[in-house]
Design a protein that fits this description.
By secondary structure, the chain is mainly alpha-helical. Helices cover about 60% and strands about 5% of the residues. The protein contains eight helices and two strands, in the order H-H-H-H-H-H-E-E-H-H.
C-alpha cells in the first residue's frame, strides 16, 4: 500500500497559497517531503512487482538477503573486516530487519516451509537456534539477483555517480532527523514561525 496516497502532487504555487492559511507550512519543505514519499512509493512498487514475479515478498526477500550476506562474508577476512557481523539467530534477524520477533518468526517459518532456510543449533551457543540458507535458496538468489540488481541500476540510471553520492548524503541527513522521532515518543508539537 502506498504511503502517500497522492498520484498528482500539489504545484508549488498551491503550497504557497496554503502557507497563507497555515504559516507553519514551509512550501519548499512540503514539496521536498511529498516528492520523497511519492518517489519512494513508485520505487517500492516497481521492486515489489519484480519480487512478485519471482513469487517472493519484500519481507521474505529481505531475510534471504540478510542471510546471504552472512553466508558470503563467512571465512573471507577481507569482506568480514569491512562489513558488520551478519545476523544468524531469529532475534538478530528481527533486529537487523527492524521488525518484531513474532514477525520474523512468521517469515522464517514460511521460508523454512518452502525449503529456503533451515534452523539448526547455533555453533556458538547450543541453546540458541541459527537460521541458514539452503542450497535451494542459494540457487534461487543466483537466478533472480542479476535481474534485481539490473532493475536497481535502471532506476538510478538518470543520476550520475556524483548525483547518486549527493542523493545518499541528503537522504542520510533526513534519516538522522527522522530517527530522532523514536517510535515510542510522540512527535513533538512545533509552533511558531516557519523554518526556512
Amino acid at each position: 500500500m502506498p504511503l502517500l496516497l497522492l498520484k498528482d502532487l500539489p504545484r508549488y504555487e498551491c503550497l504557497l497559497e496554503g502557507a497563507k492559511e497555515f504559516p507553519q507550512l514551509d512550501p519548499s519543505a512540503c514539496e521536498a517531503f511529498l516528492h520523497l514519499l511519492r518517489t519512494g512509493d513508485e520505487v517500492f512498487s516497481v521492486s515489489e512487482r519484480h519480487l512478485a514475479s519471482h513469487n517472493i515478498s519484500q519481507g521474505r526477500f529481505g531475510v534471504l538477503m540478510l542471510l546471504w550476506g552472512s553466508t558470503h562474508r563467512r571465512g573471507d577476512p577481507q569482506i568480514s573486516g569491512s562489513c558488520p557481523a551478519s545476523p544468524r539467530t531469529p532475534a538478530e534477524l528481527a533486529d537487523a530487519a527492524g521488525v518484531t520477533r513474532a514477525t520474523m518468526t512468521g517469515l522464517v517459518d514460511t521460508l523454512e516451509r518452502d525449503g529456503f532456510v533451515r534452523r539448526e543449533p547455533d555453533p556458538n551457543d547450543r541453546r540458541m537456534m541459527s537460521v541458514r540458507l539452503t542450497a535451494r535458496a542459494e540457487e534461487f538468489l543466483h537466478s533472480m539477483l542479476p535481474a534485481h540488481f539490473e532493475l536497481m541500476a535502471r532506476l538510478m540510471a538518470p543520476l550520475s555517480e556524483p548525483e547518486r553520492k549527493t542523493l545518499v548524503g541528503l537522504l542520510n541527513k533526513i534519516l538522522v532527523c527522522a530517527s530522532e522521532f523514536s517510535p515510542n515518543a510522540p512527535v513533538p508539537a512545533v509552533t511558531g514561525a516557519p523554518v526556512h
